[in-house]
Amino acid sequence: MEAKYIYFNGEFVPWNDAKIHVLSHVVQYGSGVFEGIRCYSTKNGPAIFRGYGHYKRLKESMKTYRMDIKESVEELIQITKELILKNDLKDAYIRPVVYRGLGEISPNPLHAPIEIAIAAFSMGKIFEEKEDEGINIMVSSWRRFAPDTIPTLAKATGNYLNSELAMIEAEESGFDEAVMLDIFGFVAEGPGENIFLVKDGTLYTPTITSSILKGITRDSVTKIALRLGIPVREEHMPREMLYTVDEAFFSGTAAEITPIVSIDKIPVGNGKVGDVTRLIKGEFKKITQGDDPFGWLEYVEFEGM
Ligand SMILES: Cc1ncc(COP(=O)(O)O)c(C=O)c1O
């Protein structure tokens, strides 16, 4: 993982020069907010997928933690386009992070400076080698954090300590990934993905009251499904629903749409990737290749211009 430049506090600096102090607030207390965005190589040239939605969510995460930066959402999109061009990338994973820099040694973040970095580099999908056959997951013994503890709607760096514990448990137990329950025992999400279940032709996904991140891909899946005439329901879902549905898949910027074929060693449906999953995955892929009826692609530089 490397690229030529990183946008770092107002300028494009060489990859190895984007450095922070070891006593920065973010290192000591996890006080950063970030995004994961993809740029796809489409038939019309490189395009950022739902950049506006991602940067709007970044601003919302910042607001929750009383952070501000001078760049507007529109400026952040322009900077990202410039970064992709400077790095000669066709497709890319984009990682903006706004964090607290070197200030006082105190959990109080208000006296530490706010800094920004945006990196863009080549990165495949996670679970890429299993995207056709599907993955095997477990229900984690680690719950998502309770409402009014750490806000899950804010995509903050510190949140991922919870994800780390679930991922360690899954890997050490021989699974590809985990799914976590919320504090009330309802299905929440994966450590870095939202979850969808299919039952009798209807798509189900947990509500934002089940301690989830409000995923941009989750929203894309919902809109694609509705356009295909597939009903979508956001619900509180008991754990046992995981064992009785016909199909299941994860959605996320890094995982895109990843079929799940077993949960706790119980086959999902017949244990094979289901038709609804295939259909939505196929539609999603078409959009990222440039057939975009929703206007989600933000072209970095339109070919032929
Ligand atoms: C905890 C968590 N849930 C869900 C998602 C999926 O969100 P998105 O589709 O916006 O990438 C992510 C990835 O960002 C995540 O980290």
Short summary of the structure?
The protein is α+β, with helices and mostly antiparallel strands. Helix content is 25%, strand content 28%.
Task: Summarize the structure in words.
There is one protein chain. The chain has 305 residues and is of the alpha+beta class. It folds into two domains: 117 residues, D-amino Acid Aminotransferase, Chain A, domain 1 (2-Layer Sandwich), CATH 3.30.470; 161 residues, D-amino Acid Aminotransferase, Chain A, domain 2 (Alpha-Beta Barrel). 25% of the residues lie in helices and 28% in strands. The chain has seven helices and 17 strands. The strands form two sheets. Strands 8, 9, 10, 11, 12, 13, 14, 15 and 16 form a nine-stranded mixed sheet that branches. Strands 1, 2, 3, 4, 5, 6, 7 and 17 form an eight-stranded antiparallel sheet that branches. A hairpin with a 2-residue loop joins strand 11 and strand 12. Helix 2 crosses helix 3. The longest helix is centred in the first third of the chain and has 14 residues. The radius of gyration is 19 Å and the shape is globular. The chain starts with a strand and ends in a 6-residue tail after the last strand. The mean pLDDT is 96. The site of pyridoxal-5'-phosphate has 13 residues, from helix 5 and strand 14.
